[in-house]
Design goal:
It contains nine helices and 17 strands. The strands form three sheets. An eleven-stranded mixed beta sheet has the order 1-8-2-3-7-4-6-5-9-10-11, sandwiched between helices. It has a four-stranded parallel beta sheet with strand order 12-17-14-16. 29% of the residues lie in helices and 17% in strands. Helix 1 packs across helix 5. It starts with 11 loop residues before the first strand and ends with a helix. It is globular, with a radius of gyration of 19 Å. The longest helix is centred in the C-terminal third of the chain and has 16 residues, at 280-295. By secondary structure, the chain is of the alpha/beta class. It has two domains: 12-221, Alpha-Beta Complex (DHBP synthase); 241-324, Threonylcarbamoyl-AMP synthase, C-terminal domain (Rossmann fold, 3-Layer(aba) Sandwich), CATH 3.40.50. Bound molecules: threonylcarbamoyladenylate (TXA) and magnesium ion. Magnesium ion is lined by residues 148-149, 157.
Length: 326
């Protein structure tokens, strides 16, 4: 038996004001979905305590339910009500929150986050966002909000309200339009579990070196008892084929450059540059919007110039590599 798709609902895109954020809070309390800006990418939020509301996220995104969601809270103190923070997790939360770091910790026994949001795992992923709209929504809702990136599952994450509407229009009640997301790639996900090194599960908005500097040791790789079911190889993908570390461009292809190097070969159908000055933060902020823009032109492929594997380059290259998997 196949499930009947949900009837489309009307989606309102609203400027974030006291009034519209209040409407967002009401919608969340009624078990509806509200998309909102964070400093990394836009998230699609639901009441973390309600299995019914969380289920709507999986349905709206077409996301496999074995892929757990990030729970957003207002502060480290609130995070400690949900998860078990050891000394290392406290150190990292203190240093990087509010900000683009997600910490996976063991879930406390009376954890308010519904098990569907955790995909049945005994751990929970927590993040304290810094974006003022996300913070106001959390402050007024007075409870944890689960929010994966507000895109169709497997697609490129949204960095504007328009991107959210393109992917989830008709599926969410409200989109709070906070302009362009600053960081542009998702949060760095690490796991702090007892008896194990702190592991990097997903490179993201906080570079590995910054975390290692605070921790005073190298991050371990994903593995051990940590499960990272969301790290499917194919993810973050536009519709077009993506060719990375490209030096040349063929007719019919689109070029996504970085720095000053121009592509060899044909002219291609379009050229965009992630950062002409070679600034990785600027490149991260432009990445998903430019992939969407070039994809809309239906190129035979998107040829992407090499990006250095340092700082935010690790997260950018991670997303680009996943975009090449068909
Ligand atoms: O920047 C971000 O992190 C954005 C904004 C909206 O906050 N959110 C986001 O969520 O990217 P999402 O659901 O698209 O990615 C969550 C990642 C997935 O790779 C998932 O597998 C992992 O976090 N994750 C969540 N809970 C986990 C857990 N208990 N153990 C291991 N990995 C977990
Ligand atoms: Mg995502």
């Amino acid at each position: 038996m196949t499930a009947t798709p949900a009837t489309p609902i009307s989606t309102r895109i609203l400027e974030p004001t006291n009034h519209s954020i209040g409407e967002g809070v009401w919608a969340l309390a009624a078990g509806e979905l509200v998309a909102f800006p964070t400093e990394t990418v836009y998230g699609v939020g639901a009441d973390a305590r309600s299995g019914k509301a969380v289920a709507k996220i999986f349905e709206a995104k077409g996301r496999p339910s074995f892929n757990p969601l990030i729970t957003h809270v207002l502060s480290l103190d609130e995070a400690k009500v949900v998860g078990q923070f050891d000394e290392r997790a406290v150190k990292l939360g203190t240093a990087f929150w509010p900000g683009a770091l997600t910490i996976v910790v063991p879930c406390l026994e009376d954890c308010a986050v519904h098990e569907l949001a955790r995909a049945g795992l005994s751990t929970v992923a927590l993040r304290v966002p810094s974006h003022p709209v996300a913070r106001k929504l959390l402050d007024e809702f007075m409870a944890p909000i689960v929010a994966p990136s507000a895109n169709r599952s497997g697609h490129v994450s949204p960095t504007s309200a328009r991107h959210v509407a393109a992917d989830l229009g008709g599926k969410v009640s409200i989109i709070l339009d906070g302009g362009r997301a600053d960081v542009g790639v998702e949060s760095t996900v690490i796991a702090c579990l007892p008896g194990e090194p702190v592991r990097l599960l997903r490179p993201g908005g906080i570079p590995r070196a910054d975390i290692e500097c605070v921790l005073g040791e190298k991050l371990g790789e994903a593995g051990g008892t940590v499960q990272s079911p969301g790290m499917l190889a194919q993810h973050y993908a536009p519709g077009a084929i993506v060719r990375i570390d490209a030096m040349d461009i063929a007719d019919g292809e689109a070029w996504l450059g970085f720095g000053t190097a121009a592509p060899l070969g044909g002219r291609g159908i379009a050229h965009l540059n992630l950062s002409p000055s070679g600034d990785l933060a600027e490149a991260a902020a432009n990445l998903f919007a430019y992939l969407r823009e070039l994809d809309a032109l239906n190129p035979s492929a998107i040829a992407v110039a090499a990006i250095p594997e340092e700082g935010l380059g690790e997260a950018i290259n991670d997303r680009l590599r996943r975009a090449t998997v068909r």
